[in-house]
C-alpha cells in the first residue's frame, strides 16, 4: 500500500463542498481558514477502534480521507492524529500548498505523534491537526516562537490544562545541539512539554509504518475524544471527562451517563459508542492472545 495525497481528490472535494470553501491563493490567510474548518473534525478513536476490530492486522484498517469526511458528514466522527494529518496533507497539497509530514516524540514514546510542515514564501510553519494550533506556527531556528492563543489552540490529544485566553501560549523552542524543536504549552504560568520533532520530511512508506504501529499502542485501550468549542475544551478518556473554559476546569465521572454524554456533546450516536466498547473488549482479547502466542 502506498500513501499518496494526490489520490484523494474525492475526499478533498467533499471537504471543500461541505464546509463551503472556495479556492484561493495558497497564502497564510487561506491556510488559517482551512484549519478553522478542519477543527470541526473531532479527535476521537471510536472510529479507529471499530475499524481495527473489523480489519484486524490489515492495511485496510486505515481510515483514508474519503472515509474520514464521509463519517463526519453522516455520523459526526473525526479521527486520530494519523488519519487527520494525512487528510489535512491531502487538502493542503491539492489546494496549492507545499507541505510534508513529520514525526514527533512524546513522553509515551518515539514517533507516536505526527504533524505537518507547510512552506510558504520561503518560511516554514508547523500545522498540527492533533494539537490544532489556532493558526500556523512559524518555525525559526534562532528564536523561540511563542504563539498567544485561545482555547482553540490548546491540546486536543491530552487532558487540557487550566488556561485563560489572556495567558495561554504555545511555545516552539529550537535546540541546536539536538537539531530538534520542542513544543510547550504554557497556561497560568505553568509550562508543560508536549513533544519534539526534527524538521525532516517523513517518507510515505515510513509514515505508513508508524500509522500501522499506532494500532498497537496504549491509546487504543480506551475511548478518547476531544472537542474544541468557542469557550473551551471538552476532553473524555474512558469514564473521565474534563471541561475547561475561562473560569477554570471541572472534572466528571460519566460512567452512568457514558453513551448519552458522548452523543449530547459530540453528536456521535449511542450505537457507535456501544459498538466501540464491544470492539474494544474484543481487540484487547486479540492482543492478549497474540502476545501469548509470541511468548510461547
Would you give an account of this structure?
The chain is an alpha+beta fold and 296 residues long. The chain has a single domain, classed as Arylamine N-acetyltransferase fold, CATH 3.30.2140. It is 34% helix and 28% strand. The chain has 8 helices and 13 strands. The strands form 2 sheets. The chain has an 8-stranded antiparallel sheet with strand order 5-4-3-2-9-8-7-6. A 5-stranded antiparallel sheet has the order 1-10-11-12-13. Helix 3 crosses helix 8 (270-295). The longest helix has 26 residues, at 270-295. It is globular. The two termini are 31 Å apart. Mean pLDDT is 86; it is low at 148-167.
What is this structure, in a nutshell?
By secondary structure, this protein is of the alpha+beta class. It has one domain: Arylamine N-acetyltransferase fold, CATH 3.30.2140.20.
Structural class, from helix and strand content? alpha+beta
Which stretches of 5+ consecutive residues score pLDDT under 50?
148-167
CATH architecture: 2-Layer Sandwich
Q: Taking Cα atoms only, what radius of gyration do you get, to the nearest Å?
A: 19 Å
Number of helices: 8
How many strand units? 13
Number of domains: 1
CATH topology name, in short, is: Arylamine N-acetyltransferase fold
- Helix percent reads 25-40%
Numbering strands along the chain, what is their spatial order in the largest sheet?
Answer: 5-4-3-2-9-8-7-6
Major sheet description? 8 strands, antiparallel
Mean pLDDT: 86
- Please report the distance between the alpha carbons of the first and last residues: 31 Å
The SSE order reads HHEHHHEEEEEEEEHEEEEHH
Globally, the shape reads globular
CATH class descriptor name: Alpha Beta
> How much β-strand is present in the residues?
25-35%
